[in-house]
Design goal:
By secondary structure, the protein is an alpha+beta fold. It is 25% helix and 29% strand. A hairpin with a 6-residue loop joins β12 and β13. The chain binds adenosine-5'-triphosphate (ATP) and magnesium ion (MG).
């Protein structure tokens, strides 16, 4: 017997108008359909319908985590500060942490994520390599004092996360635990009915699949990613790399150009009547205190984050006026790579050997043309450091890339020995000597997934849930007359007995129009109406997504809904 929930008894108050503070579709609809209620910024109450969806997602997550042999635990959310001091995250997290004191003045935090505590649990519970690998998970409330808690439950300050952690003795073991998680995530998101992409979370420079994000494309997303319309390539914007292809071409000799008052690319391009893309922009930065020039086509922007990741652990900073003191070789606004002898020159692969440029002549008010890469200047390192743009070629197939918005719904990460080193997590190895453990950490935004699913599946009429996570399988609507209510309740009872989860609108004194509007808004995948032909025992079954309708007898409806 599945649950038959009567609307007349359900605590749900649907709203006709969007809440004033709501910007995203999911925020508006989840509030209007009575799934969630805002308590304060980024802090939400899950009302009965919302709680059902949240629990359905948790169930799918739990089933797939159990299937890969992960064991469920529940750690506290209220944590002492010491482990987070040991890992330096007490400092690093800064304002993101909710910090509090107990009555004795002891310092605590509300857990934003639990690597430290899981490491300590395993240190306490596991002694030998024979007890590994171990994978542990929890579905728990997390706390982060986000700077911009907006978009409803998409970015909360209190939210539900599934976090899991793997513990292995070898790198191969970690790779296997990571693979198992990756596959479990694919199954979870497929079952949830989410459209998603897997992208490498770090730039190509740091490489590999040591960290990947699961992104759900949606206009409300806060992440931008690149998506190839022709092949399966998808990536974080910082991970896209342009292929270095040397060019064979004849170029004239370098020629100086008189270019008064043209310290910027815009002023230069206008003065010469050439497109910005014909010019070479040389950005000066400091890398661990040393001045380095970075060359990119004049119409492109340098992505400092990308540059920083390429050069890590070196620290990249912008130059200031003082850095030019005593540097006669650096003419601000008129720098060109030819004649930059004492400066390391990094260039984007678009500045390939054989390409010709208009660039600074290292003289005030002067530029030079026909400055050819590989002939007039050498590039010390080719690194893709430009901000990716729509239409840039796909690294896999060359088609123009699209830039899309997405919601990060999951993240898998090979941590390695970072936390094991901090807490000296060793087990007794095969040779009788201690072996340091290697770890992975894996997150899914369970409450965020509710909003992501709402974003992807909703339409103008309201929410429209995929079957597995909908709050009911069918929404039975009694149009209003006693006879219709009787039929609606009768078919609901029978459906419940057949294992179908039913929400039945048996409210008296509510017009059929309001009931239909509410059914569309609440978004249960099938709507079964006891209306005009109730006297003959005929109901109308409507598909919430396609709008397709058919008339069925009670028995036919039951057969259809249990198929
Ligand atoms: P974001 O970049 O969106 O802040 P994150 O990189 O901080 O996410 P993780 O620390 O990897 O996220 O957390 C694991 C998962 O928890 C994320 O993939 C996301 O789905 C979810 N999550 C993170 N922060 C929030 C939040 N403030 N509200 C709801 N879900 C969140
Ligand atoms: Mg975050």
């Amino acid at each position: 017997m599945a649950q038959v929930q009567r609307m007349s008894r359900l605590m749900v108050k649907t709203l006709r108008d969007d809440p004033a503070d709501a910007e995203t579709l999911s925020h508006k609809l989840l509030v209007r359909a009575g799934y969630v209620r805002r308590n304060s910024a980024g802090i939400w109450t899950w009302l009965p319908l919302g709680k059902k969806v949240l629990d359905n997602i948790s169930r799918v997550v739990r089933e797939e985590m159990d299937a890969i042999g992960a064991q469920e635990v529940l750690l506290p959310a209220l944590l002492p500060k010491e482990p987070y001091e040991a890992s330096a995250r007490w400092e690093e997290y800064g304002d993101l942490l909710f910090r509090l004191k107990d009555r004795k003045g002891g310092e605590y935090l509300l857990g934003p994520t639990h690597e430290e505590i899981f490491t300590l649990v395993v240190k306490d519970q596991v002694a030998s390599y024979k007890d590994l690998p171990v994978m542990l998970y929890q579905i728990q409330t997390k706390y982060r004092d986000e700077a911009r808690p907006r978009s409803g439950v998409l970015r909360g300050r209190e939210f539900q996360m599934k976090d899991s952690y793997s513990f292995d003795t070898t790198d191969e073991g970690l790779a296997e635990s990571y693979r198992l998680h990756r596959e479990a995530y694919q199954k979870i998101f497929a079952r949830l009915g989410l459209d998603y992409r897997i992208v490498s979370a770090v730039s190509g420079a740091m490489g590999g699949s040591a960290s990947e994000e699961f992104l759900a494309p949606a206009a409300a997303g806060e992440d931008t990613f690149v998506d190839c319309p022709a092949c399966d390539y998808a990536a974080n914007t910082e991970a896209v790399t342009f292929k270095l292809t040397p060019v064979e071409a004849e170029h004239g000799p370098v020629e100086e150009l008189d270019t008064p008052d043209t310290p910027t690319i815009e002023t230069l391009a206008e003065h010469l009547g050439v497109p910005a893309s014909a010019t070479l922009k040389n950005l000066l930065v400091k890398v661990d205190g040393e001045i380095v020039a970075v060359g990119v086509p004049g119409d492109r922007e340098v992505d400092l984050g990308k540059l920083g990741e390429h050069l890590a652990p070196a620290v990249v900073e912008l130059v200031t006026a003082e850095d030019f003191e005593g540097r006669g070789d650096l003419v601000r606004g008129y720098v060109g790579p030819q004649g930059l002898e004492k400066v390391r020159y990094i260039a984007d692969p678009r500045v390939a050997p054989g390409t010709s440029w208009i660039t600074g002549a290292n003289k005030i008010n002067t530029h030079a043309k026909n400055v050819v890469a590989g002939r007039d200047f050498e590039v010390d390192d080719y690194l893709d450091v430009v901000v990716v743009e729509e239409g840039d070629p796909c690294p896999q197939c060359g088609t123009g890339l699209k830039l899309d918005r997405a919601i990060e719904i999951g993240h898998i990460f090979q941590l390695g020995r970072k936390y094991a080193d901090t807490f000296q997590l060793d087990v007794l190895g095969q040779q009788g000597k201690p072996v340091r453990v290697t770890m992975g950490s894996y997150g899914i935004g369970v409450s965020r997934a509710v909003a992501a699913l709402a974003e992807q599946s909703a339409d103008e009429q309201g929410l429209c849930w995929p079957k597995e996570i909908a709050p009911a399988d069918v929404h039975v609507v009694a149009a209003g007359k006693a006879l219709q209510t009787e039929l609606a309740l009768d078919v609901s009872q029978k459906l419940g007995a057949a294992g179908v989860r039913v929400l039945v609108d048996d409210r008296a004194g509510v017009s059929p129009g309001v009931k239909f509007t509410d059914a569309e808004l609440i978004g249960v995948p099938k709507i079964l109406v006891a209306g005009r032909r109730s006297a003959e025992g005929v109901l109308e079954l409507k598909d919430r997504r396609t709008g397709e309708r058919e008339e069925l007898t009670v028995d036919e409806a039951i057969a259809r809904l249990t198929a």
